[in-house]
Amino acid sequence: MGELRKPRFYQASIDEIRAGETTDVYFVRTEQIIREAGLDRHVRAEFSIKGLPHDYPWAVFAGLEEVLALLDGLDINVRGVREGTVIRPHQPIMEIEGSYLSFARLETAILGLICEASGVATKAARIRTFARDRILASFGARRMHPAIAPVIERAAFIGGCDGVSVVKSARELGEDPTGTTPHALMLIVGDTVKAMQLFDDLVEPGAQRIALIDTFEDEKFEAIRVAEALGDRLNGVRLDTPGSRRGNFAQILREVRWELDLRGFQHVRLLASGGLDEREVAALYDYVDGYGVGTSIANARTIDFGMDIVEIEGRPVSKRGKMSGGKQVWRDPATLLDVVLPLGKGPEDSSPVSMLNPIIENGTLVDPVPDPHALRQFVLDQLAVVGGEIVPKNEDD
Questions:
Q1: What digits encode the pLDDT tens for the residues 132-151?
Q2: 70 and 11 Cβ atoms separated by less than 8 Å
Q3: Tens digits of per-residue pLDDT, 280-322?
Q4: Residues 6 or more apart whose Cβ sits within 8 Å of residue 94
Q5: Does the pTM of the predicted model rise above 0.70?
Q6: What is the DSSP letter of 87?
Q7: What SS3 state is found at 291?
Q8: How far apart are CA 67 and CA 76, in angstroms?
Q9: Rounded to an integer, what distance in angstroms lies between the CA atom of residue 155 and that of residue 83?
Q10: What is the phi/psi pair of residue 167, to 5°?
């Protein structure tokens, strides 16, 4: 056996990320060659999506604020789309212009920041589309490394979730954390009704009284018992029934709704959770008032961005399979459809708007970063246009 050592956490610090210690080693070696050979050049490098998972028609761009924090103070120019923008493959969404060595070592970190956050925001936006006007809460904290919980839940919120469960994440967003009751409480107390009575007696009045009703008995009977015990103080019941016991989840929810309404508890909302994805969210819409979605949002497939140099010292250049030179994306505000043209060339129609706009000029941020609530509303406004492009398909199909 090796020498015993004290366990530790393995996440990189912010200073280590900014110093480029989370970069791929080939960038370190590339830097060495360019520096020692005196080959540093002024470049234009663009970021675009190579492809989307599962034939998604669009994605939601997220993670830009952290990219700007990473690039803060560097002598570069950055153009890009607004965070929260609905984007499509094979068109630039961000561009960095400056000395290559000024940002070369940060490429890995930049891609990591936008690939994961955009994947989460995209999945949340897809589920938001099928949840329509129902409550949608992010319950995915236990499916991620805790160090990045605020990152993931910020992206989920921007993508359209109404609330997040992690205390720090909610605080960063200026929201109250969203949550109900766990099976652990029910098991330790030994009875669902007694557990909810203790919750009602001891937890601050502002917290929603939402009972988890599938720990011990049939859901509809537990719902009746809790509703009769708490009356008007009961805000809702949550069904987290595992797949092995679920059967027809829609029918279970329908029965619970029927029994509660029959006894005058129309005010009690029904919330569903437990392995939900687009198809389940769409199928349960008529029977629930809200959803708690964890794994499918927190563990969403990343969006496959890449960075490519398209200009060196003002001369268009590119690798195979890429179009060289600076570009501008022009969008029709009514349809959110785009056309990509060479930089400096505008569309014949005057209605499209430019999407790649200055964000950093000569190392200075052009505008303040938007509030997450404004970004979320921006996403929701776009979903009203593009939401009909998707179907309720689960990722394992």
A1: 999 999 998 888 899 999 99
A2: no
A3: 999 999 999 999 999 999 999 999 999 999 999 999 999 998 9
A4: 46, 47, 64, 67, 78, 79, 80, 81, 114, 356, 359
A5: yes
A6: E
A7: strand
A8: 13
A9: 10
A10: -60, -50
Domains and CATH numbers, the chain: 14-120+303-389 (3.20.140.10), 132-298 (3.20.20.70)
Which pair of tokens denotes residue 304? 């496959």
357-378 per-position pLDDT tens digit: 999 999 999 999 999 999 999 9
Q: How far apart are CA 194 and CA 213, in angstroms?
A: 12
Angle at 336 between CA 335 and CA 342, to 5 degrees: 125
According to DSSP H, which parts of the chain are helical? 14-18, 25-36, 64-71, 100-103, 107-131, 149-158, 167-173, 183-189, 192-202, 219-230, 243-246, 249-262, 278-283, 295-298, 372-386
Question: In terms of Cα–Cα distance, which of 82, 61, 79, 58 is closest to 328?
Answer: 79
Instruction: Report helix, strand and coil shares of the chain as percent, to nearest 5.
Output: 40, 20, 40
pLDDT at 217: 86
